[in-house]
Amino acid sequence: MNRYRKNEYIKKIIEDHKNMKQNYSSHLIKIGQEEHIDSLIKGKMYMKNLKYYKGQETENEQRYDCNEGDVFQYKSVDIEISDVGKNDFKKLGVGDIRVKDNEILNNPIFCMFSITNNNFDKRLKDQYIYSLDSDLLKFGDYSLLINDTKEFYKRINNKMSEIKKSYRYSSIEYVDYSFHDGLLGPFRKDIEYKKQKEWRLWIYDLLVEDHYILDIGSIKDISIKVKTEELLKIVFINNFDLNANRTYSSIATKINI
Fold first, then answer.
1. Is there a contact between 5 and 103 (Cβ–Cβ < 8 Å)?
2. In total, how many domains does the chain have?
3. 8-33 residue pLDDT tens
């Protein structure tokens, strides 16, 4: 597919994303089948379209979100209907309206698990720590831990500049859809998915029927391949005060469990 239009909602989502609070990701993790992890080590980012993640209910509920493609939510609005061409509106009551965008469902997305400063919620002596949830085993038997996210972003940026495509990336912001009134889009999800701690790359001026492969070159030098069950034995340590207004850094330490 090569038709593309930047509609008003996509323009608003892009501007909104620029103003979103960005949480620094100290590590990014991709979990899946071994052959897919090996391909990623070579730099091939296999990006399914957003529609794929909307329709995963029967295949893998861990990756499924029926709200994908929703771009705006209006809360508690007066709803009226009328026949086409007539002005005799009939009031139905007050309700919520969700605006969907079918075109955005054909944009390629790459998803990873993100470890940010917000993850470090447990304290051990003078250090804040974070360990991964066993639910991650449901995503696949092998994992790739990217331990130099700044370099990873640099390689994405360089490739995007080379192929002249428009894109955004960041961690997901989780909001309560029961109360949220306003923009949604690829970087906002309902709080029921908060455990996913997702990071996304979104190419918004490219439409694909199924997938797109973005080749950023080998990332072997900035990543570690491990079995997912071994990944769960890793404790991530943050030595900084979580209340400090500064960039956080963290290290990963393997321990015996």
1. yes
2. 1
3. 888 889 998 988 877 778 889 999 99
